[in-house]
Amino acid sequence: MYLIDTNVLSELTKPRPNLGVKNWVVDQPDMYVSVLTLGEIGRGAQALRKRDDRRAERIAAWLEGVRRDFMTRVLPIDERVIDSWVTLPTMRTLPTIDGLIAATAAAHDLTVVTRNTAEFSDLGVRLLNPFAD
């Protein structure tokens, strides 16, 4: 089972998404997203409104579809995730959202699907990069 990082989900909003990502997503029934991923995409759409309101609207509408599609597969930041987060094996400063994504994967025994494997490589979670695979 897989936890989809923001960069993978966002790739699907592009007019011509990466073929590896597109093909991988089609073949995967057991995908989950973090509530943080939905928040990052929503904030991105909101920030885009100043430059390209039409594209922002398309992304916001797409995000609503994602929320419906993943309705029962959106994982919250709960005590189980926080307990995992505080024990992540890292010796470096880590962006909070990346740490919480890794902790969510660890708490639910999921593989993180991301383009940014280097960001997660020392956190003790399984990784998959559909951009490279």
From TrEMBL:
Superkingdom per UniProt: Bacteria
Protein keywords: Hydrolase, Magnesium, Metal-binding, Nuclease, Toxin, Toxin-antitoxin system
Entry's Gene Ontology molecular function annotations: hydrolase activity; magnesium ion binding; RNA nuclease activity; toxin activity
Short name of one Pfam family: PIN
Record domain PIN: where: 2-122
Coiled coil: none
Assigned EC number: 3.1.-.-
InterPro entries found in the cross-reference section: PIN-like_dom_sf, PIN_dom, Type_II_TA_system_RNase, VapC_family
Residues the record lists as binding Mg(2+): D5, D98
The protein's required cofactors: Mg(2+)
Membership in a protein family: Belongs to the PINc/VapC protein family.
Function: Toxic component of a toxin-antitoxin (TA) system. An RNase.
Protein known as: Ribonuclease VapC
Lineage of origin: Bacteria, Bacillati, Actinomycetota, Actinomycetes, Micrococcales
